Amino acid sequence: IDSFSYKKIMDKALYALKHKKNIIKLLEERMQVLAQELRFEDASKIRDQINNISKSSIQSRIDLARDINVDIIAIESNEHYIIIIRLFMRDGKIISNTHKTQRKTDYLDENELYKRAILDFYQDNIPLMATQILVAQPFDEQNILSEIISQRIGRKISIVYPLTGDKKKHIELSLKNAKELLRQKQNNIQDIETLK
Questions:
Q1: Separation between Cα atoms, residue 96 and residue 86, nearest integer Å
Q2: 58, 62, 73, 169: which sits with the fewest CB atoms below 10 Å from its CB?
Q3: pLDDT value of residue 58
């Protein structure tokens, strides 16, 4: 296959990924024609294709966001423990995560926890590839902290609390992970107490 033909095929594939509604509409029209021709088995195959394409739309949107480089910080707590979770997204994919568990104290609220988590983690000697730090909750002095981190790493970095879109979905994922880690911690403690 020559490079021109290959480019043409790739352009069509990218168009299909970005414009799924058009593809679905064409498939629905084809399915209707097949049903009218009493070719129900062929029509059901197209129906299954439509379902698969519809289900894959969210994943494709995330995969196409290849230039997203963010760090995500979320904090979840119960009456005894606090979980601080960090997810690292590079080229639109989560490549790593870390978490820290600590005992809950009365003198640290989530506002202070977010500030400490960011200041402790983003030191001078840590290379930061992210363009943004996403947080699961807004906190006081967010803009000031953004300036401090920007000075530390030598380039602009913003701290953002997303309200909508894919970034909000990534925050929800990190909170879900933090809640699961908290649940596991609580179960481990209960198992140890049961063994005593």
A1: 8
A2: 58
A3: 44
